[in-house]
Design goal:
Layout: E1 2-7, E2 11-17, E3 23-30, H1 39-49, E4 59-64, H2 70-83, E5 91-94, H3 95-104, E6 109-114, E7 118-123, E8 128-130, H4 145-157, H5 163-172, H6 177-185, H7 190-195, H8 198-203, H9 208-226, H10 231-234, E9 237-241, H11 243-247, H12 249-258, E10 265-267, H13 271-281
Parallel strand pairs: 1-4, 4-5, 6-9, 9-10
Antiparallel strand pairs: 1-2, 2-3, 6-7, 7-8
Helix pairs in contact: 1-2, 3-13, 4-9, 9-12
């Protein structure tokens, strides 16, 4: 049996499947980004929350945010293999390759992630052939849940948005200024904290101030993460995955149209496509 994981900075979806792709079990745990968690911490989470569903698993394939560098890949691989008794070596890849395999299978095109973070790549049907630097939420990640909500909270705390929205925000999230700043600047995983306000942004998505945040961010996303590629890839399929892409798809489609582009597919979660890829397109266990 095969255990597939799709991990962002906020959550990790695990799916245990047989060789035909039938789901045997599934579980979700927190995000396992190796930039924010140590090898020991990752192993502890997997042992507690994932190991109970892994009876009979032969191989693990893990796609994760933060798994772009060899040392980060080894960190996750070692953590998995230290707690799960498996027959075949664990495979660990970046989440953007997982997104491309899920959405495009053997097709050529551009795949984008818009969730807690942001990323994109050009995929040739076999592997990634181009990828702009992601850089993270401090330097880039426009359109991600982290940056969208950072911009929203900035307007709220500076009282530059309508009073009714500010009042609703403080009633929904009863934290004072000191507590908010402490969470952002002094506590770990500030990106997850910021992105957690996405439901509130969605509630007011069509308010003029929130619309501006969304449109400005999505324009920057396309300019940096999509238009950076030459014209040939832009003529191929353009696909998106992630909670932000899914819930704000209307804004994403309209922004793409501003640049003369069309989005072929938006899915919230890539897991179903990954199961198809590994069990039908290129079986992982032979």
């Amino acid at each position: 049996m095969l255990l597939i994981a799709d991990s962002g900075s906020t959550k990790t979806d695990w799916r245990l499947v047989d060789e035909e792709g039938n789901t045997i079990d599934a579980v979700q745990c927190k995000g396992l980004n190796p930039y924010f968690l140590t090898e020991t911490e990752i192993a502890q989470i997997i042992k507690k929350e994932v190991a109970p569903i892994t009876n009979g698993v032969e191989k693990v394939i893990f796609y994760g945010a933060g798994c772009g560098l060899p040392e980060k890949v080894d960190q996750v691989k070692n953590a998995i293999e230290s707690v799960l008794p498996i027959k075949y070596p664990t495979e660990v890849y970046g989440d953007i390759l997982g997104a491309a395999r899920s959405l495009l299978q053997g097709q050529q095109g551009i795949t984008c992630i818009l969730g807690t973070g942001a990323n994109s790549c050009v995929y040739d049907g076999h592997g990634i052939i181009d990828n702009v630097p992601s850089l993270g939420y401090i330097l880039a990640d426009w359109g991600s849940g982290t940056v969208l909500c950072k911009d929203l909270i900035s307007l709220i705390l500076q009282e530059k948005i309508d009073a009714e929205i500010r009042e609703d925000f403080h009633a929904t999230y009863p934290m004072d200024l000191r507590q908010m700043l402490d969470k952002i600047y002094n506590k770990p995983q500030a990106n997850r904290f910021l992105a957690s306000f996405t439901p509130f942004l969605l509630k007011y998505a069509h308010h003029k101030a929130c619309e501006k945040i969304l449109k400005d961010n999505f324009r920057k996303f396309f300019e940096y993460y999509v238009l950076a590629y030459d014209e040939k890839p832009l003529s191929k399929a353009i696909t998106f995955t992630g909670s932000i892409a899914y819930h704000f798809s209307d804004f994403l489609h309209s922004t793409a149209a501003e640049y003369g582009l069309a989005i072929n597919k938006i899915v919230q979660h890539p897991m179903n496509g990954l199961v198809k890829y590994h069990c039908q397109t290129v079986p992982a266990i032979k």
